[in-house]
Amino acid sequence: MALNFLTSTDQSITVVVSCDPDVKASDEQTAKYLQSANMSDLEHVAETATRFTIKALSPADREDAEQRAGAYTRSELGRLLWIEAPSDRAERARWHHELTDDEREAMSSYQSYINRVYYEMIRASLTHINNEPATLDDIQNIRPDEARSSTISELVVHIQRISLLGIEGK
Amino acid sequence: MWLNHSRGRAWDCSQCKAKQGLRSLRGNCGGSFKRGLPQSQVDDDGHVYIMGYRVAPDSGESFSDLEIRSCPVALSNRVAPIVQAYHRHRSGLLTIAQSYPKPTCAIIEALEVLHYNHEDAQYRAQKTAMMEASKNV
Predict the structure, then answer these.
(1) Which residue among A3, A163, A168 sits closest to B104, beta carbon to beta carbon?
(2) Which residue numbers in chain A have pLDDT < 70?
(3) Which residue of B has its CA nearest to A165?
(4) Are A7 and B30 inside 8 Å of each other by CB?
(5) Which of A8, A65, A88, A121 has the least C-beta neighbours within 10 A?
(6) What pLDDT score was predicted for residue A100?
(7) Min CA distance, B101 vs chain A (Å)?
(8) Which has the closest alpha carbon to B7: B127, B136, B129, B125?
(9) Chain A residue whose CA is closest to B100
C-alpha cells in the first residue's frame, strides 16, 4: 500500500468502477485499483467505460457532509454496537440475533447514518461524469440497484483515499 | 510512516549508496524486503520483516514495536514536500495557508501527525540528555 492522497481540494482524479460492463478486472485487480486509481492495474478499460471525476475533500467539506448526514442526531448506541460487532459474517449474524429490539433499531439507525455520510461525501466530491457536470442524483439513477450500490462503495473508497491520510501515513 | 530526525544509527539512504547490494535487500526504495537482509525475520507466511527499533533505534514506542515490511525512508521521501512545509512553518518563513491554500483533510492530518511526532522526538531527546547528564554527576 502506498500514500495516494491529494494535497489540494482543487485537485481531482478520474476513476472507473469495476461493475461497469466496459471494465474487465479480477477481484485482486479491483482491490489493487482501489488503492491506486491507476487504470493500468485493471485488465481492460474500454474507451466507452464511464469515467467519474472526483475531487479531494477539505476538513470543512467533510464536516459539512457529516452534519448533513445527521452527525449530531445519530444513534450513539448504534455507533457503539457498530464498533463492537464481530467482523466474521457468521459470527456477526449470531451476535446480531442476540441483540434486543432497541439495540437492533439503534444499529439500523447508525447504518442509515453511515449510508447518508457516503451519499453526502459523493455529493461534495463528484464533479463530472464523462466530462459532463454531474451530481449525486446521477449516481442514484444507476440501474440495476447492485450496480448503484457498488458504484457508491467504490467512489467512497476513492474519495477517502485521496482525502484522508490513512493508517499508512501515520 | 517514520521520519529520521537525528541521523545516528537509524536507516538512511546514504547506507544503501555506501554498501553494494543493500538497496536491493531493502526492496529498492519501497518494495518488499528480501531474504538475507541483516537483522530481518520471516513471518509464518514467508514475508520478510524487520522490527521498528532496528530501523530507528531512537523511535518512540508506537514505532519500535511495528513489523516493518518495506523501507520507511522511501515512504518518508514521498512526503518530503509536506515535511519541508512543516519546517518552514515552524521557522516562521511561511504559514500553512501559504503552503497549502486549499488543504485536504489528509494534509491537515499529516501536519498534525508530523507535529505530534516532532514534539515527541524532542521530548525523548531531552529525556535522554537529562538521564545521561545525571549519570555524569
Answers:
(1) A163
(2) 1-3, 167-170
(3) B106
(4) no
(5) A88
(6) 97
(7) 8
(8) B125
(9) A8
DSSP per-residue letters across A22-44: TEE--HHHHHHHHHH--GGGSSE
Question: Which residues fall within 8 angstroms of residue A22, CB to CB, at 6 or more apart?
Answer: A16, A45, A46, A48, A49, A50
AA letter at A18: S
- DSSP H helices, chain B, are 13-18, 22-25, 27-30, 52-55, 61-64, 72-78, 80-90, 96-99, 105-136
Q: Of B30, B100, B106, which has the smallest distance from its Cβ to A164's Cβ? A: B106
pLDDT score for A1: 43
C-alpha pair distances (Å), A111 with each of A70, A125, A140, B4? 12, 21, 18, 42
Helix (H/G/I), strand (E/B), else coil: B110 = helix
Instruction: Evaluate whether A150 touches A34 at the Cβ level (below 8 Å).
Output: no
Nearest CA in chain B to A164: B106
ipTM: 0.81
Chain B residues whose CB is inside 8 A of the A170 CB are: 1, 113
- Can you name the residues that pair with A13 across neighbouring β-strands? A54
Has residue B5 got a pLDDT over 60? no
